[in-house]
Amino acid sequence: MNAYSQQDSTRDSVDIAIIGSGFAGLCMAIKLKEAGQHDFFIAEQADTLGGTWRDNHYPGCACDVQSHVYSFSFAPNPDWTRQFAPQAEIRAYLEQCAQRYELASYLRFGMGLDQAVFDDAQQRWNLRFSNGRQVSARVLVSGMGGLSRPALPDIPGLDSFKGKRFHSQQWDHDYSLKGKRVAVIGTGASAIQFVPQIAPHVAHLDLFQRTPPWIMPKRDRPISRFERWTFKYLPFTQRLVRGAFYLALESRVVGFALHPKLMKVVQKIAVGHLHKQVTRPSLRKTLTPDYTIGCKRILISNDYYPALSRSNVQVVTYNVVRIEADGVITADGIKHPADCLIFGTGFQATDPLPRGCIIGRHGVDIMDTWRDGAHAYLGTTVPGYPNLFLIVGPNTGLGHNSMILMIEAQVTYILDALQQMQRQRIDTIDVKPAVESAYNLNLQEKLKRTIWSTGGCQSWYLDPRTGKNTTLWPGSTWRFKQVTRHFSLKDYVVSTAPATADSRPVSHPNTTAEGSLS
Question: Contact at 8 Å (CB) between 136 and 333?
Answer without folding.
Answer: no
